[in-house]
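hi! just following up on the protien thing from before. the input was this:
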Amino acid sequence: MRHGESIGNKENRFRGRYDFSLSETGVQQAQALKKELRVVKFTIVFSSPLKRALDTARIISPSNLKIQIKEEITNISLGSWENQLKSEISKKYPYLWKTWLKEPEDLEFEGMETLKMVQNRAYQFVEKLIDYHTNGDILVVSHRAVLKPLFARMLGIAKNYFWKIELDPASYSVVEFKGDRGFTFTCINQNKHLQDYNREDLG
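and the predicted 3d structure came back as:
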């Protein structure tokens, strides 16, 4: 699942690894998500180390499970863009901004982690899950720029995939794995548990 709305989402800033907290709405979204998934018996919980993901996981996770923090599912590193308003980035870097809007898979600048790099580390994390946690329901709380490239890899989608997969704050997706079949998505971007739903700015 993707974490709930953060302060950075609310202010329309590039987040990256800047450690934004959940907004008040984000906390409410996580609580709604907990209620939505109350019947699921999770056997293990993994989270990105960033506060917006970890706090979402803390709200949702059963009290008897210790949250395992994994750097492999932390958000993309966006270097100097982090915590910057998207409106300012669009003015300061018009060519890179256009690439972000049209072909983010090709975006690359000094200090940035590319989406391909993110995809590789996230997929390696999933491969470890398959090797060591083959039974039960696993909860993974991460970020849009991690889950989108990961899902694309699972589905065998090459570029351009980023803007073709929508993942809203506090949405969840369900993926099953079977050794003879691989990955099967039974649900993507489920958000029916969210009240007063407003779609996030796609940029």
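The first strand starts at residue 42 and ends at 47.
The chain has one domain: 7-190.
cheers
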